[in-house]
Amino acid sequence: xxxxxxxxxxxALFSESRLADGQTTPSFAxxxxxxxxxxxxxxxxxxLSFVAATALLVCALVSLxxxxxxxxxxxxxxxxxxxxxxxxxxxxxxxxxxxxxxxNPRRLKRVAFNSRxxxxxxxxxxxxxxxxxxxxxxxxxxxxxxxxxxxxxLLDSLSDGLLKSLPEMNQTVDEMKxxxxxxxx
Length: 185
Description:
By secondary structure, the protein is mostly helical. It has helices at about 5-25, 30-40, 50-80, 80-85, 105-145, 160-165, 175. Mean pLDDT is about 75; it is low at about 75-100.
């Protein structure tokens, strides 16, 4: 088969393209040898991203522990009013220079009373919130319990009474036949 003008031009262009590709494409043996050499290279013991992620996780856990311990401290203070009413004992002589000053018992009683009031108000507020939440939960439970499917009436039939009841033992066979449909003879 002999090539004609346009076909010769196309054939020459494809040959040039193949030659250019052959020069830029690496040889298979070179690529294979590089891949084999990389597979035997030992990997780094610590990956930088793994270390950073671990450090971030540790920081998050430490800050969470710190935050949770800070959140519990008001509960400890709320239980302190029982101790506040006691009068501290001063050393013999009650010397103000020793760092222990006499404390006014009336002021201590007032502080203890105010603290107890705060605790009682807080407990009442919590109880009111809990009561409101319980009422809402009861209403929701009642609504769920009284729910009926909109298509439930489609499942009812006229013979439900017959299908859901059993004949009594003292009925005769003739009475029981009355429930059966009549068969043509």
